[in-house]
Amino acid sequence: MTINRVPARAGRGRSLxxxxxxxxxxxxxxxxxxxxxxxxxxDQVRAVTPFDDLLTPSVRITQGEGRSLRNGSTDVVPGSLVxxxxxxxxxxxxxxxGGDPVGGVIAPDGRSWTSSRAFGYGQDYRIDARASGxxxxxxxxxxxxxxxxxxVTNARLTPDDGATVGVGQPVALTFDEPIADKQAAxxxxxxxxxxxxxxxxxxxxxTEARWRPAQYWKPGTKVTVTVDTRxxxxxxxxxxxxxxxxxxxxxxxxxxxxxxxxxxxxxTRDGTVVRRMPTSMGKPSAPTNPGTYLVGERLDHIVxxxxxxxxxxxxxxxxxxxxxxxxxxxxxxxxxxxxxxxVWAQGxxxxxxxxxxxxxxxxLWFLRTTLRGDVVEVRGTAAETLPxxxxxxxxxxxxxxxxxxxx
Length: 407
Fold this sequence. Notes:
Helix content is about 15%, strand content about 40%. It is an alpha+beta fold and about 400 residues long. It has three domains: about 90 residues, Immunoglobulin-like; about 100 residues, Sandwich (Immunoglobulin-like); about 140 residues, L,D-transpeptidase catalytic domain-like (Beta Barrel), CATH 2.40.440. The strands form seven sheets. A five-stranded antiparallel sheet has the order 2-1-4-7-6, with no helix packed on it. A five-stranded mixed sheet has the order 22-21-20-28-23, with no helix packed on it. The protein has a four-stranded mixed sheet with strand order 3-9-8-5, with no helix packed on it. The longest helix has about 40 residues.
């Protein structure tokens, strides 16, 4: 049997070969095109940002809100913090030389350093920084001079550092110049307490600011006050010049209360009555103001002089009297003090010019027992409440008004 083979297989093979040839050519062409594109893109990247530059660290030094601090700058505001940043690397160290000492803190990631306090006024400084990265080590240096204000002010803090105080004691700051920008001053002062409390600032005058909690302090509370006004503009061209931290502790709770109906001062310590003291308060023509008072200065001897608040000594209501064991309750001159001449009236008749007269024994005990910031509450007298701006009448300002502030 003769079998005739159809030449289709051979023809199909030639067709596949032709296709393969064409595909090979296309592959070569595509490969060339891709290589050309890769080459072009690589050249473009190298032309824009050399690869080495991506790895080489650099140091940037700025002030305030990111403004570049240039070498040779003058009139630099001392209170504006300086930041040193390592670009493409981490800081090896930052040194500040010249002028008043200024330190700083490197961030946990090592990429930045920030000055921790204000620079001194009118002083020359130099900052040297080093950073390292994959591409090597970089350095940065800048020298500058800080500005000198025409007027600086200091703030005196009460209570003293390390003091133990009563549960009513506010944080009291007294500036030696009137403060125009009170909010700037408040921002430069930080009050922290352990345990934490809600508190707020209130200004008794243009020179005196107070911070107190919403309620009396809890006994044992530890309070830290940081005043950092140096280098800060407090308004009208006046700059602060303080940078310090002080701490005080709240002692036991001692509250003395007196009602005109009984004319007896009842002293309670940590909830327990420890003494009752008959008293003679302000006579009808000079009644003692009701309200909450705070213990201020305690003086073994003082001369009370009516002329200090505008009443001539030689007038009908004038006086100039030496007294012993005087415990201050207000700026306007109200004291708990020894009054041996009125022992007969104490507990039954008001005869004083507004003070709380007590016996010499009670006056001495009260002076030696009380702390600055202890509370004295007066009720039932026929007069207006002690003003909150009388210096020791802080707690007579309602909390809502105090918290709203008056800066």
